[in-house]
Every structure is written in structure tokens, then in C-alpha cells.
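Weekly sync notes, structure subgroup
Attendees: PM, AL, DS (notes)

Item 1: joint prediction request from the bench team. They want all two components modeled as one assembly rather than separately. Inputs as received:
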Amino acid sequence: MAVERVTPAGAPQRRRSFLGLAWLGVGVAALGEAAWIVASFLKPRAKAPSGEGSLVVAGPSEGFAPGSVTAFPAGKFYLVRLQDGGFLALHRQCTHLGCSVPWDEASGRFACPCHASVFDLRGDVLVPPAPRPLDLFAVRIENGIVKVDTGTKVRRSGFEPSQVTRG
Amino acid sequence: MLRPQTDGDRARTVVSTFVLHLRPVRVPRAAIRFTHTFGLGGMSLVLLGTLGVTGSLLMLGYTPVPGEAYASIERLESQVLFGAFVRSVHHWSANLLVLVAFLHLLRVFFTGGFLDGRALNWLVGLVLLAAIAASSFTGYLLPWDQLAYWAVTIVTGMAGYVPLAGVALAALLRGGPEIGPETLGTYYAFHTQWLPALLVALALFHFWRVRRAGGVVVPPDAVRDERGKPEQVLFLPHLLWRETAVALLLLGAVSLCAALVRAPLGPPANPGLSLNPAKAPWYFLGFQELLVHLHPLFAVVVVPALGAIALVALPYLGFAKDEPRGAWFLSANGRRTARLAAVVALVATPILVVADEALLGAAGAPSGGAAFVTRGLLPVAALLAVCAAGYRALRSWQGATPLEAAQALFVLLATGFVVLTVTGIWFRGSGMRLVWPWNA
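Output from the run, pasted for the record:
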């Protein structure tokens, strides 16, 4: 305090406030860096990017009867064969709050036990609270073998024929 | 000053000078009455200490890896002397801390404890409450049983409804697309390192700020001398013994609860088999109940954000210096209006819950844009309108001061939230349908 009062207006005071600002800038930059480092540590790391690791070979397409639902617990999906012979791979996670949805053979529906959402064979919502149909995994059929890529999950707002894979 | 003569005196001097470093020498007699504060802040500190000690013990026997975690808890409970008891004390203390810290917030609100230069400490208190909820929640996952797995699935799923950032936020909270080893590792680190460090630092600051503000708010009926200073008593022994008694009674109660009712441990987590119904931890069930009635964006984002903004803004709303304070519910008029608001909320909330359930059953839930308006914008706008109208009515017809009117609104909303939480805990059964608790 005393120093500032006897210093004539001009260089020293400007130097002092510049140094103060510089310290502040360095401090803010250091905080930003620290926050960035923490965030990058917390950020989820992709375990199995789309490709060989995430590809599930379901089997020959004639092994699945039309209108059938087959669970693949390791891939966390249901392979659905529609009545017309097309394939859909439905992620088993409920779109409401993430519970696992079991297939109910008797009623021919997916019924979530947590909050009573119900989905039809194509994954469309029959009874809310689920806000959107079950997510899809990409299906492809190579040489009659059904393969499901669990690395890419597709969100959708409703069923469309283009979502179905045909062999 | 007289030199202490015997070893006993010397020891007492050391202890009392140390204690007096942390606490004031004199305190107002009226402010140390138990029913003035119910010792809720001190109880929180005791529970934090208990959680620190029991948590450190539990860390010795726990393995934070899926596939190992559940078995390590089982071994701890079956093979370690007092293992199950220590875990139960940790469980009871954690749940009690959430409750006691919330009651502490109510006490501070209802005695005007956020006024008079205590605004910053009110904010610190809010951060502490959030950190306590986060500690409890991260700890909820660690046993890796069905209850833990699905409760954390539900809460992180709720975060998924945040617009734009939702999917990324849910992934961040889970450490990946689904709950797995990364989730458990992250939650363990937060539960045992980051959050305790934050809690200890903030709690110390919180207590220091109370002392800076001249102790807890003094009741208006305190005996005062001619200069207006309330009558003082010595901290030692008057307050210290009361605090010690409260702490020991609390520890006794927690030990008794832990001995009688063990911390639950369900079947091990099974990602393929959901619980019916799947519920969040009890302190988040008010929000889950809101999710049944409102559009997700409003239940998860808008309503909680409005509540948080109101709580943060409270000390900065510019209440006048002559507002009543210090007594429970501020004044006789404050007590009357608060009671009125509580009764209104106690009657209206269950009626609204049951009516909405009947409506959903009859008409089915609307979806898309219709739901956004009818189950989002409209109810929230109606609630805000009720608050605005209620404020004006309280001011003009009930002769309430601005602070008394704000308190009545807070009572209305807080009671409504508590009713929703109670509904979520006891009145929601399979498929989240309304049931009587004895039929659940």
C-alpha cells in the first residue's frame, strides 16, 4: 500500500497491474487444464468400436422361424424374424430408464418389468412410459449367415420397413 | 492466570484451550436450547465422522471389481468380526445423514438462518447437501447386488432425458453405454476419495462461517441486556456437554438400529434380469415419481432446475432488515401461514397423484408434442401460477411479510415433494402402479 502511494503515476503501477493480470491469466489457464485433464480421465472410453470385436454371428438365416424371437444375452439383443422373413436386431435395454426387457412368448410382446412399458415384435411402443421404440443394431446377411453389429446402436422414432434386413 | 497444579488440571486445560480454538468462549443462552436447532448440523458432523471411520474399515475388505465386489461383501459379513455390524452402521449413518442434512436445511430456512451475512454459508450448505446425496448414491452401487445395479441404471437413465447432452451425460455417469467395471471403479473413487475430501473441506468451512457470523441465529425471545446483547453463558460446559450428549445419543441410536436391522444385500447383480419395480434410491424417488406424471424433460430438467435456482437465489432476494427471524417459522403469522400451506400440499398432492393415475389409466399417456404441452408446459405453468397467486393472497389477505409468504410457498413445494417421495417409496408396486404399502 505504502509503496503505491509514493510511486509516481506511470510505469511501475502499470507493470504491477500487468503482472497481476498475468498471474490471474496463468491461474485460470492452469485451472482450465486441470478441469480438462479430469474430464478426459472421466470420459468413457470406447471398448469395442464397430468392427470385428462387436460382430455377433447369429447363425444361418433358415435357423430362425418367421415370427420368432431369439435372445442373445452376450450381445444384449434379441434377433427378431418378422412374419415376412425380414430380420431386426433389437437392443434389450428399455428406452424409458434402461431396464432389461424380457420377451413374453405367451403374449407375443416385450414387457418391461420395471415400469410396465410394452413393445411389439418390431420394437414399437404399445404402452408408454417408454418414449421411443427399442433401439436397433445393424443386421447383415452374408452367404445366408445372419450377423449383428453390436458396435453401432440406432435410435429411431418409429418402425419403418427400411429398418428390416432381408436375406 | 493461575497455573494448573495437578496433572488432571493440566490435561483439562490442554483440552479446553484446544476446544476453545474451534468454538467460541461464550454463546447466547437462548441459542443453545435443543429445540432451537435440534442439533441437526452437529448431528450431520457426527454422522460424517461415523461414515469416515466405518468406511475406512469397509475399504479394507472390499474389492471394487464386478464379479468380486459382491463376494467380498459376503465374505466381510460372514467371516469378519463385526463385519456385518460395521457395514450396517455405515448403511444407517448414510441414510440418516441424507435425512438429517435435509432437516437441517429446513431448520435454517424456517428460522431465517440464511439472512444477515449468511448467504454464502447457505450456498455452501446447498453444495454440501448435493455432495451428501452424491456420496450416498455412489455408495449405493458398491455392493453390486440387484438393488444397487438397477437403482443406478434408473438414475443414470433419468440423466439420459437431459436435452442434447443426455446420451453423453448418461454415458459419462455410467463410464460407458452400460453399467460395468468402469462404472464401479469410478463410483468407488468418487465415494472414497473425491467426495469425502470435498465434504470435509466444505464442512470445516461451513462451521467456520457459522462462527464468523456470530454463531447460530439467536431466537427473538432471548433475554437481552440494556445494549441489546443476548445473555451469554460459557461454551464450556454449557454447550459442549449438550453437544456431547446429542452425539452420544445419536451414536447409540445408530448402533442400535444397525444391530437390529442389517444393511440389505440382495441377490448379486444380474444385467439380464430387471427388478420389478426398479426404483432409484429413496432420496431420488420424488423425481422418479415426477417422471410418472410429467414429460421427462420437465421431470428431470425443468422442475429440478427451477427448484435449485429458487434455493440458490433465496438469500439474494433482498428481504428487509426488519423481517422477523430467529424463531421457528419466523413469527406467529409465519407459523399460521406455513401450517396452511402444509395442509394444502398434504391434501392436494395425493389427490393430484391419484387423479393423474386414473387419467393415465383411462385415456392413456399422450406422446410427442402433445405430451410436451399437456404433461409439461401446462402443469408447470399452472404450478408457477398457483405460486404467484398464493404469494399475492398471502401478502394481502393473510398480512404476511415477503419472507413469511416466501416461507409458505417453500412449505407448499417442499411438502409436495416429500409427499411425492413417500408415494414413490411406499405406494408404488409392480409396474410402478399405485398400491397400498401392505399389498406391495
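Discussion: Chain B has 15 helices and two strands.
Action: AL to compare against the crosslinking data before next sync.
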